[in-house]
């Protein structure tokens, strides 16, 4: 059972959140302003038509009652009113059908557009964002916000607009029928609004906790699924299942149920007030009918208007959770989506079509979020076409150098220049298109071999795909697949061996034909035979390209033109293999000898 929560009544849907949420809705409605305008106009028309239906119903009843005393006039009057009533109802039904269809279509478009725009926005977020945030939490926020957006617009806003217009017309008509009963209705509505206004703040604190609980639960569930192989290897399925169940059911769902209880309590008091008001109206109506102050038909019409007046407030009360949840969810999602994206095209950006490949680090200092310094005063030069190896223990900054070369991050101090141009001045999209990466763990999409190779070069002809596969040594096993290049590789390439995935990644790099190449420990997870096959392809791939090789296995870097030895974020040695081996008590020499002669 969830622990009892203390909810501060001051923790409400604040005015700031309310108006921010409305602004978000307005922004997403802008592309559909014509549709919204038509729906509003049609809603106003049907609201006006519907407002006169109870009055006509009352007049028809009075005309029917009068038939005994004045048959001719009363029958003509009754049938005339019935015809008018019929056409009002028929016209209203046709307009309501039109509104309902287009309202549903608008809702579907808004929901899908929000999800598409939201996920598209995430693609533009910097690498630091994706490393800091849990994917499940972020996607849950976007998915929830899209659903609430659709609910608020289609099920609350457009539906309630004509209802509240009807209230104005209904109050005016009932005032002429009997002003005493109308005043009673107005007082009841005032009390109703006070109950709603005072009760709603109880929901806000619970709602915020519930959102956080669901975000956390979804985040951990996504993380678990993303590491399914490790979970199965460790045989911890039951542990993860219990963890997900506890967070999803024991915490998040428990908060939802507690919030639902508060909503149902509010709903009960609202219904009780309406029942008491109707009871009072019926009791007073006996007196008014007896004294001729109101006719039976007017009494029927008045009760119809009473229901019409209370109706929108009942709907508002029932949908307040939707409004509150929706606005809070939208504001929370927008806080994420409005975070700064990568500055792909800085002012005066340089758009390279081709790079020579000269890379210079000049006194570079770098830390993640101003925490512990990862790189300290790093300086080196890579001439065009050179092979640069980067070695050192885990966590010394090797991969960070690769990330800086890619422009995923920029140094806090010092500079990085490519072809004598500061990397921060490049059009990042154009620049990265000239840099190729072969990672330690290749990322493959659950798609065909063909599409995985051509990823990033979508228009490449089939002949180039096959040439790239041949250069990577991948054509042999691809041709043995039942569907060859149209074979699906599965989630993250799970249907392929580690060596096969690596060669697909190499084929992708060959097809990209980059000017700068980054090899991030590409053979560390391979067996000896696969490593030799990959090394031959890597040699071919590095020809004529500035290449950075990050590796633990020293056998793969002996051929490098220059080796950078990192220790504690600094370059402590640099030179060729032979030069470094001549340094007495050198760091590189010690590491090399430990690996060769463990």
Summarize the structure.
The chain is 63% helix and 10% strand. The chain is α/β, with parallel strands linked by helices and 598 residues long.
CA(first)-CA(last) distance: 56 Å
Uncertain stretches: 1-12
For the report, how would you describe the main beta sheet?
6 strands, mixed
Number of beta strands: 10
Structural class: alpha/beta
Can you characterise this structure?
- By secondary structure, this protein is α/β, with parallel strands linked by helices.
- The chain has helices spanning 15-29, 33-51, 53-65, 71-123, 127-132, 135-177, 179-199, 201-226, 228-234, 237-290, 296-337, 398-405, 428-432, 449-453, 462-471, 475-479, 498-512, 528-542, 577-581, 587-596, and strands spanning 359-367, 373-382, 387-391, 413-418, 421-422, 435-438, 516-520, 546-550, 562-567, 570-575.
- The strands form two sheets. The protein has a six-stranded mixed beta sheet. A four-stranded antiparallel beta sheet has the order 2-1-4-5, with helices on one face.
- Helix 2 runs antiparallel to helix 4.
């Amino acid at each position: 059972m969830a622990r009892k929560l203390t909810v501060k009544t001051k923790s409400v849907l604040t005015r700031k959140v309310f108006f921010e949420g409305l602004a978000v809705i307005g922004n997403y409605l802008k592309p559909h302003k014509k549709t919204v305008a038509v729906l509003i106009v049609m809603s106003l028309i049907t609201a006006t038509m519907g407002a006169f239906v109870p009055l006509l119903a009352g007049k028809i009843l009075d005309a029917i009652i009068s038939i005994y005393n004045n048959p001719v006039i009363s029958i003509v009057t009754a049938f005339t009113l019935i015809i008018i009533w019929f056409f009002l109802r028929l016209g209203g039904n046709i307009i309501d059908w039109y509104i309902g269809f287009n309202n549903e279509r608008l809702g579907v478009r808004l929901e899908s557009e929000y999800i598409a725009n939201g996920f598209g926005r995430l693609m533009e977020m910097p690498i630091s964002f994706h490393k800091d945030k849990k994917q499940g939490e972020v996607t849950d926020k976007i998915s929830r916000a899209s659903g609430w957006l659709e609910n608020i617009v289609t099920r609350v806003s457009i539906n309630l607009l004509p209802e509240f217009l009807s209230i104005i017309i209904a109050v005016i008509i009932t005032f002429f029928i009997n002003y005493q009963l109308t005043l009673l209705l107005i007082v009841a509505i005032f009390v109703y609004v006070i109950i709603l206004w005072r009760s709603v703040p109880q929901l806000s604190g619970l709602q915020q906790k519930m959102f956080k609980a669901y975000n956390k639960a979804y985040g951990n569930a996504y993380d678990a699924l993303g590491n399914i192989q490790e979970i199965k290897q460790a045989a911890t399925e039951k542990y993860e299942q219990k963890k997900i169940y506890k967070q999803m059911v024991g915490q998040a769902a428990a908060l939802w149920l507690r919030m639902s209880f508060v909503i149902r309590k509010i709903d009960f008091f609202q219904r009780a007030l309406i029942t008491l008001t109707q009871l009072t109206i019926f009791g007073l109506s006996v007196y008014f009918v007896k004294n001729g102050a109101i006719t039976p038909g007017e009494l029927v019409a008045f009760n119809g208007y009473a229901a019409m007046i209370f109706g929108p407030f009942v709907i508002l009360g029932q949908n307040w959770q939707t409004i509150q949840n929706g606005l809070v969810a939208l504001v929370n999602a927008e806080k994420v989506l409005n975070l700064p994206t990568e500055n792909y095209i800085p002012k005066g950006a340089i758009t390279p079509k081709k790079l020579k490949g000269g890379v210079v680090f000049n006194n570079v200092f770098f830390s993640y979020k101003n925490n512990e310094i990862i790189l300290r005063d790093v300086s080196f030069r890579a001439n065009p076409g050179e092979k640069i190896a980067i070695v050192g223990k885990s966590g010394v900054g090797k991969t960070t150098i690769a990330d800086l070369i890619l422009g995923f991050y920029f140094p806090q101090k010092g500079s990085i220049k490519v072809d004598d141009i500061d990397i921060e001045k490049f059009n990042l999209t154009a620049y990265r298109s000239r840099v190729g990466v072969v990672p330690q763990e290749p990322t493959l999409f659950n798609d065909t071999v063909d599409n995985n190779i051509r990823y990033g070069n979508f228009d490449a002809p089939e002949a180039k795909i096959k040439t790239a596969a041949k250069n990577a040594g991948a054509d042999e096993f691809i041709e043995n697949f039942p569907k060859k290049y149209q074979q699906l590789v599965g989630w993250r390439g799970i249907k392929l061996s580690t060596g096969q995935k690596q060669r697909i990644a190499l084929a992708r790099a060959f097809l990209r034909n980059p000017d700068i190449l980054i090899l991030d420990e590409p053979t560390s997870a391979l067996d000896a035979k696969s490593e030799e096959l990959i090394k031959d392809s890597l040699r071919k791939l590095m020809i004529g390209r500035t290449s950075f090789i990050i590796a633990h296995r020293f056998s793969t870097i002996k051929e490098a033109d220059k080796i950078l030895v990192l220790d504690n974020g600094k370059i402590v040695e640099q030179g060729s293999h032979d030069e470094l081996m001549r340094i007495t008590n050198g760091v590189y020499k010690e590491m090399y000898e430990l690996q060769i002669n463990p």
